[in-house]
Amino acid sequence: MTWQADGAVVRIGREVVSRARPGERVEAFVARGIDSQIVVREQTVESVTRSDSGGLGVRVIADGRVGFAYSGSLDPAALGQVLADARDSALYTDVRGDAVLPRPDGVPAADIDLWSEDCVALSTEEKTALSRELERAVTASAKVRGVKSVRWGDAAAESAVVSTEGVESYSRRTSCFVSTYVLGDPGTGVTTTSTGYTVGRSPAELDVAAAAREALAALPEAAHRQPRSQRLPVLFDPSVTAAFLAVVSGMLNNPATHPDQALAAAEPGHRVAPEHVTLVDDPTDSSAYGAARHDAEGLATRRNVLLDRGCLAQRLHDSTSGHRAGVPSTGSAVRAGYKSLPRAGARALSLVPGDLDRAALLSGVTHGFLVQAISGLQAGTDPLSGRFSAAVSGRMVRDGELAEHVHHCTLASSIPEALGGLLAVGSDVRSFPGNARGMTVLIAEMSLGAR
């Protein structure tokens, strides 16, 4: 990539805010970035794509009304127009009591560096070489019939938030990954699949060998049969735990619309999990994929404890939801990009790890199931009761050892029941793309059934 994060986004934000009228509160969110992807198959490059993006979102508050507009151009001529469009949209909105912009709260930004010049400077040839290396590593196994694809991806981005309330922040970050989608044949004539990947902020953090081992370990070696429907202890692979925590966080932080709504209606201090369960959102930890120095409203991020020793501790807030609840922002504003308004959300969820590694957790299970992949958890969870049914694949566990592979089964339970039955949290913490890290966890009981 020949691209430089030069801080121009701050200057653009200042220019927009300088045009605010008396009595008007204005916030400018400016972002720009670059990303590239490479697809390799059979050691041949199938595609190379590269895209540049950038834009500006402006929020205006006047007379208790909130207006918002955005532009996909950062040209000087567009700045005045997007501000005018935001003012115009405010004329057609209702007066809101929670119409606020945050002011600096004195919390210092974490001293973390999320930028790697090596990621920016890496050539297409070097990215391709790493992709080919991963393909060679997996195809060397007799278990593999072929590789559907190996994908390389990287991104570099910078953003700024500037407002009339005195907020001014600047952030930049890089990331890269390489992944593989592997095809196998366990002797049944039915193709099986698995994936493996590695992520980092720089190429030096990528572990191609580990990605290959992950893909091969999840690929069935023999024919399998569907298990009978049963309730049994369940272990989550780290990636599954990360998906589970994202759903838990959403239920904790969504406004309660019913007194019986699972988790959302619980008061601080209410016990929802065993004492050894503590859930935090810590964007100040640079090892988390979602780490950030500032939130999407320009306030410093901070470590927030959602569950403290099994009890509800606090909820995440941006300035609007915090004002509505009568509490300060927790530095937890997130955005889908410059085209969206901020909302409260997690960036770097993680359970506080326990002392047992994966092998130790497995050794304590006489008969259970290890979930290695899950789909439909978010969409399949009822927001009121927290009950869910999701498609899973994994392996049976017998006498502390991994046994046969199981595919296309259904896992059913509820988020409150799973939290309450969380028997142990592993020490094998892993970062994944998204807003959560994961580790192996053991849950007392869930329902497993053939689809």
UniProtKB/TrEMBL annotation:
Highest taxon in the source lineage: Bacteria
GO CC terms of this entry: cytosol
Regions annotated as coiled coil: none
UniProt domain Metalloprotease TldD/E central: residue ranges: 121-216
Domain Metalloprotease TldD/E C-terminal: 229-448
Gene Ontology MF term list: metallopeptidase activity
Gene Ontology BP annotations: proteolysis
Protein name: TldD/PmbA family protein
Native organism: Streptomyces chartreusis
